[in-house]
Each structure stands twice: as structure tokens, then as C-alpha cells.
Write a structure and sequence with these properties.
Helices cover 51% and strands 10% of the residues. It is built from four helices and five strands.
Length: 224
């Protein structure tokens, strides 16, 4: 049962990790972190991401422009760029390490200890990737909420709201963390193999014989 549970946990962990890594990469590059609807011009929708700002018009035409300078960005966007790139790299590394430690792979079959270490390392790396995804997404979302409810800004001024990438980033971080946890737990699952008896173990003495008595051949006293 333990071995079956470990294999299922590894499969589920890898599936969650891959989904989380792909979602994290999409979150990094899509310009949908913030949305801005203009009341004066409802035919245009502004979208902002870490790398560019896009304007979607009613006809479906999308015009995008990259951010002018990295140093001119707000601090949360600058740090979010770096953390999301780190998260993508850690997610890829974690998936590779965990894949080498799976039971279905033939790598390191004669070294089960190394396969467990690969699973543990992959799970820990994926957990760190999940954290580095959740931190920037939550930081940008927090600042968006503060700016939205800022009473010093007149009500007529449009305000940024959550974009689709914000929710996708939260799901990505949760998937990465859950996948890493499952993989790390599966590495600690005990094996189902039958334990071998120690080499020096002796079976119980034959019934009816005193302890320490040894059987001898029938004609052991004959001299040839």
C-alpha cells in the first residue's frame, strides 16, 4: 500500500508541478496583471503587465508598448520581474530533479537513496518556486487594492483593477507548492519490500534438544 501511495503521490505531484510551472511562465509574460476601464471612453481597455502596456479597442485591435525603462518602473514591478524569472527557473529545475527521482525512471535504480534525495531536492525547489510566484503576485495585488481605495485620488480618475494574470499567478504558486509537497512526502514513503533477516541470525533450536546441542552424523565416531 505504501509503495502504491508513493507512486500516486509522485504522479499527482508532477502533474501539479508542471501545471504550476506552465501557469507561472504564462503569468510572467502576459500583459494582464492590471486592467483599466475608462468611463469616458468605454471602447478602450488598458492592460498592464511586467513587460508592456496594451490597449484593446472595441474592434479587437490590440496595441502594445514596452515599458520605457526598467528603473522608471514602480518598485513592485521591478522586483516582480526578477522574482518571476527566478520562479520560472526554479520551477524548471525542480521538475527536472523530481523527474529523475521518479520510480518509473531507470536512472539510479541501484541507488534508491540518491533517488530519494532527488525527489526531496525537486520538491523543495518546487516549493521555493511557488513562494517566489506568490510573493510578487500578492504584492502587486496589495498595491492595486491600496491605489483603488486611495481617498486622495478624485473619484473621476480611473483606477486599476485586478487582471486575469493575478488570479492565474495565485493558482500557479499554489500548484507549485502543492506539487513540491507531494513529491517530498512521496520520497519519505517506506518501501514495501520484505525485510531480510540478518546474516548472523540462527533459527530456533530443534525441539527436544538442549540449547547449544548440535546434531552429528550417525557414524561420526568411526575413524576411517
Amino acid at each position: 500500500m505504501a509503495g502504491g501511495w508513493g507512486a500516486k503521490a509522485q504522479g499527482g505531484g508532477m502533474l501539479l508541478a508542471l501545471l504550476g510551472w506552465i501557469s507561472s511562465c504564462v503569468t510572467t509574460f502576459v500583459p494582464l496583471w492590471k486592467n483599466l476601464n475608462l468611463d469616458l471612453n468605454e471602447m478602450e481597455v488598458w492592460n498592464m503587465g511586467l513587460w508592456q502596456v496594451c490597449i484593446t479597442q472595441e474592434e479587437g485591435v490590440v496595441e502594445c508598448q514596452a515599458h520605457g525603462s526598467f528603473l522608471a518602473l514602480p518598485p513592485e514591478l521591478r522586483i516582480s520581474r526578477l522574482l518571476m524569472c527566478v520562479s520560472n527557473g526554479l520551477g524548471l529545475l525542480g521538475c527536472l530533479l523530481a523527474a529523475l527521482g521518479l520510480e518509473g525512471w531507470r536512472t539510479c535504480e541501484d541507488k534508491p537513496g540518491r533517488k530519494r534525495r532527488l525527489l526531496l531536492g525537486g520538491g523543495a525547489t518546487l516549493g521555493l518556486a511557488g513562494i517566489t510566484t506568490l510573493v510578487p503576485v500578492s504584492w502587486v495585488a496589495y498595491n492595486t487594492v491600496l491605489d483603488f481605495w486611495d481617498e486622495t485620488v478624485p473619484d473621476i480618475v480611473p483606477r486599476w483593477e485586478f487582471g486575469e494574470a493575478t488570479f492565474l499567478g495565485w493558482f500557479a504558486g499554489a500548484f507549485l507548492a502543492a506539487g513540491g509537497l507531494l513529491l517530498a512526502c512521496s520520497a519519505r514513503a517506506p518501501s514495501t519490500g520484505t525485510p531480510l533477516a540478518p546474516a548472523g541470525h540462527q533459527g530456533p533450536a530443534a525441539p527436544g534438544l538442549p540449547r547449544g546441542h548440535h546434531l552429528h552424523p550417525k557414524n561420526a565416531d568411526l575413524v576411517i
